[in-house]
Design a protein that fits this description.
Elements (H helix, E strand, L loop, with lengths): L6 H4 L14 E8 L3 H13 L4 E4 L15 E2 L7 H8 L1 H25 L5 E10 L2 H16 L6 E5 L17 E3 L1 H7 L9 E10 L1 H15 L4 E4 L6 E4 L4 E5 L2 E10 L8 E4 L6 H5 L3 E12 L6 E6 L15 E8 L7 E12 L14 H14 L9 E12 L6 E4 L6 E5 L6 H15 L19
Parallel strand pairs: 1-2, 1-11, 2-8, 4-14, 5-6, 9-12, 11-19
Antiparallel strand pairs: 3-7, 4-7, 5-7, 9-10, 10-11, 13-16, 13-17, 14-15, 15-16, 18-19
Helix pairs in contact: 2-7, 2-10, 3-4, 4-10
The protein binds flavin-adenine dinucleotide (FAD).
Length: 462
Amino acid sequence: MIPNTSPWLAQLNRTRPAVPLDADASADVAIVGAGIAGATTAYFTLKNTNDSVLMLEADMVAHGATGHNAGQITSYFERPFESIVKEFGLELAVEGQRAIESAWGLLDEIVAEAGLKTPAYRFTGYAGCSEFEQVVEHLEENKDRTQGGLPQETILIAEESGWAPALPSFYEGLYSVVSQENILALLETDDRRYQAVIASQKGCMNSARFTEELIGHLLATYPGRFSLYEKSPVAKVTLYEDRGELVVGEHTVEARRVVLCTNGFEQFHIENTSGSDIDTKFHHLVQGRIGYMAGYLESMNASPVAISYFPKGQPVTGDPTGETYFYFTRRPHGEEEGEAKNLVCAGGPEQVLPNQAEYSRNQHCREDVRESLDDFLGSTYKHYPDPGTEYAFCWHGLMGYTPGGLRRIGAEPCNPVLLYNLGCNGVGILPSIYGGKRIARILAGEALETSIFDPVDQRCLI
Ligand SMILES: Cc1cc2nc3c(=O)[nH]c(=O)nc-3n(C[C@H](O)[C@H](O)[C@H](O)COP(=O)(O)OP(=O)(O)OC[C@H]3O[C@@H](n4cnc5c(N)ncnc54)[C@H](O)[C@@H]3O)c2cc1C
């Protein structure tokens, strides 16, 4: 039996005691959930408005998906960009992509202004394609990006593949042809099935440590305006025309606005006394998926990177439909303890959580999944096993897939007292940060342009 041991939580070094809510309370804004979405929403709200913020967390800060992810900073959507263009039109799709990419700058802003010490590594990351169709999907995205005024992504195709001459002429200028040796070197593999590579800006960070540090900063900077209650699960949210009331154990919290940053896995009931029912729709919006990861420590013989591999039969844009691809990140680990090593985290396998089924963070890691990750590294990653490689961590976390595969950011159409910054969709670090900024702008009273992240309910269009 392998316990669920996240390397991110192991690095928290937290000393702050968990304080549960022990009396009725009120605030301008109540934020439910203290993951990276809750923390960044609180940060921008405190910075950009005069509102007081009260944060409620069922467990402990950053112990949800934020503490159990792959920690890769990346800006792609887990559905083909082309399909977003089809659904929303080129302009809105490009704006959505630009919004997520803007979160790189927001991340820098937070780190600089709050003086955070959590290391964040930034580099060029790679995705390896083994099929012609996968490359076409990315060329299509590059075409849309260019038409919409976004910077092009680098796409390299192996000369040996024979794929370039088979491409329609309208893709010309959107890719380069190189030798397969170049492709394999970038992908750090000897697996000759990989014939093309997409290169884009990526990074990695311990998002749990970032979140914990940011919350510590907010508590120190805004003692009169920010309060945090952990071990304080919200059981019920009642929405009125001008306020919300949250039930936490025997106590209630009253707030003008309520922001759900719960990832999607709320264990509570919502009652809307001022408009259409929200509860049943909301509960069925988000599908649960458990993502499994394994971590290995190896000598510090290579720089930080993130690489994904799409074997035959897999689309290049994630797996909301259940396909499996593999990826790894590599970053320094344990430097502060004087034991600097590289931590290589591998992930890919996912399991759909049956409707209404309970997920428990305390469940053990699955031995078969750990073995498949081990096989993947063994067959693909050319530095593995390095003579000093040691298996160190195995963990899993819960993701919430929204039906459209896009994060839900904004006011609930059936009662705007309630707002959302949730729906992790497998890639959630940058979207959560962007969501935090967008929610703060709404709370500040700005009228925002329509976006692909807007919560929509046809019955209650505003
Ligand atoms: C295995 C895995 C790998 C991933 N890899 C990546 C990656 O490489 N890159 C990337 O960008 N994203 C990745 N993600 C997604 C990313 O981690 C999440 O999108 C992001 O951390 C979500 O943050 P959040 O704050 O929305 O949710 P969470 O961190 O889950 O926080 C939600 C919080 O709400 C609390 N909560 C829920 N219900 C209640 C309630 N009723 N009352 C009070 N509190 C409540 C929970 O306890 C939790 O702490 C991954 C996720 C998983 C699970």
